[in-house]
Amino acid sequence: QVRLVESGGGLVQAGGSLRLACAASGSIFSITAMGWYRQAPGKQRELVAHITSDGTTNYGDSVKGRCTISRDNAKNTVYLEMNSLKPEDTAVYYCNLVRFAYNYWGQGTQVTVSS
């Protein structure tokens, strides 16, 4: 079993920054990748960023240049640094872990960007 606990969401003004964290626990060996997705009301869940076991990163088009994903293997934690936030970044952000081609999800953390 895999457990993902997210933290760091909240309310921020446009142009501000936030740092999200996701701590993984449980059966977390042989992780393929970890990352972040988001879902705004009435919209589909979309990729924000993910990082593979070898450190390769990938970002969604809407956040490229504004977000940085990183990880601390010793803490089994992945971080998402978000800068220059826009109101359209408002969404629930979900941590994702891929292991043996199975996706695990966190409970989500709300990010609200005010204009």
Write up this protein.
With 115 residues, the chain is mainly β. Helices cover 0% and strands 60% of the residues. It has no helices and eleven strands. Strands 2, 4, 5, 6, 9, 10 and 11 form a seven-stranded mixed sheet that branches. A hairpin with a 6-residue loop joins β4 and β5. It is globular, with a radius of gyration of 13 Å. The mean pLDDT is 94.
Give the DSSP E fraction (strand runs of 2 or more residues).
over 45%
Number of helices: 0
Largest sheet: 7 strands, mixed
Q: Using DSSP, what is the number of strands?
A: 11
**For the CA atoms, what is the radius of gyration?**
13 Å
First-residue to last-residue Cα separation: 40 Å
Order of helices and strands: EEEEEEEEEEE
List unreliable stretches of 5+ residues.
none
Arithmetic mean pLDDT: 94
Structural class: mainly beta
Q: Name the helicity range.
A: under 10%
Inertia-based shape: globular
Element layout with pairings:
Elements: E1 2-7, E2 10-13, E3 18-26, E4 31-39, E5 46-52, E6 57-59, E7 67-72, E8 77-82, E9 91-99, E10 102-105, E11 109-114
Parallel strand pairs: 2-11
Antiparallel strand pairs: 1-3, 3-8, 4-5, 4-9, 5-6, 7-8, 9-10, 9-11
